[in-house]
Amino acid sequence: MGRTQSGSRFGRLTNCKFNLQCARMIARTADQTLKEYEKGFPVIALVGPRQSGKTTLARTLFGDRPYVSLENLDTREFARSDPRGFLERYAGGAIFDEIQNAVHLLSYLQERVDTSRAMGRFIITGSQQYNLREGISQSLAGRVGAVTLLPFSVEELTAGGAMNGQLDDHLYRGSYPPLYDRPVSPSAWYENYVASYVERDVRQIIAVRDLTQFQTFLRLCAGRTGQLLNLSSLADDAGITHNTALAWISVLEAGFLLYRLPPHFRSFNKRLTKSPKLFVTDPGLAAWLLGIQSAEQLAFHPLRGALFETFVVSEFLKARRHRGLGDALYFWRDRSGLEVDALFDRAGTLHPAEAKAGATVTDDMLRNLRRWHAVAGNAAGVASLIYGGTERYRRSGVRVLPWCDPVPEEMRA
Length: 413
Hints:
This protein is of the alpha/beta class. 41% of the residues lie in helices and 16% in strands. It has helices at 22-25, 30-40, 54-61, 73-81, 83-88, 105-114, 129-139, 154-159, 167-173, 186-205, 211-223, 231-238, 242-254, 283-289, 295-299, 304-321, 363-376, and strands at 43-47, 67-69, 94-97, 122-126, 144-148, 227-228, 258-261, 277-280, 329-333, 339-346, 349-356, 384-387, 393-395, 398-402. The longest helix is centred in the middle third of the chain and has 20 residues, at 186-205.
């Protein structure tokens, strides 16, 4: 997949033809993981942001089971008022969509699965970790195989023939499946997405009195994507308290919309930065929150580099989470300013990666990787530079990867 012409791992990059089947035809890398979990866990949990394709994937892979949406008010009331009677209707198994709306069902599911050795009977999906994670750990610990499904990865889009080969177009559009199965502009879709899902979900979890203030907070987070998180500065700019800013970030992170990339703890005798870096999990959403209205505008935007880094980190997360693997992802920065954008820790070997949006590789792009390699010594793994071009090669001991094939092989295993 290192080139946009023939020789790509998944074939030639082509334009997506907008039709209602396009997103459904794109295979997900989580498929294999979920089918493996079906053999070893009585309950399978598929979690991720709203509109990331969870329902489509669950119904495609497990279509022999009844589908039950807990967004439906009548269904939800039945599940809440008579959970045992509700589950009795689905004794043979079912897909329970948006389980966070009836999280108490998890305790009753435990009774069901503990009386049977059947694997893969129940599939649960959820778009909000805030209460779901606690419910799973308390009621279904050891009984659930969980996979996080984020929006489409470049790997998935390319294999499905839905990439157009243009970096700025991809950064502007983002990766949410609905943007690939209908003729809707990213600006219109993201506006309705934030209003219909993000704001509603946040209101259900925490009392946001001033919605305008919350919208301002969201946009300020987008303006800081790829930067060290300074909660005090963020709170001051949003006109809220430090604790409120922390609570809002936690809720948005629980909804898979923000991600805090932690710093790696290994010091190599250096004084390290202790603050995480803040990322919006999808570059298209970040671009919309920044007020970017077209790919042409994005190409000259001062935060294009930050959006590219956001894209690269999101691709790293997808490569791990869609395969049921832990993130093992960090960044590294010392007090002198030496930084690598991402650091993948594989059994103590640290593989650094830099994200540079430029289409031409220069020596300056490689400088931090070389300096970090000298500092890390024997702990250093293969260094990668992900850039805005389309060629794949090695330069001065660094693996140079194109934006259309941004994930190093060691992250996929």
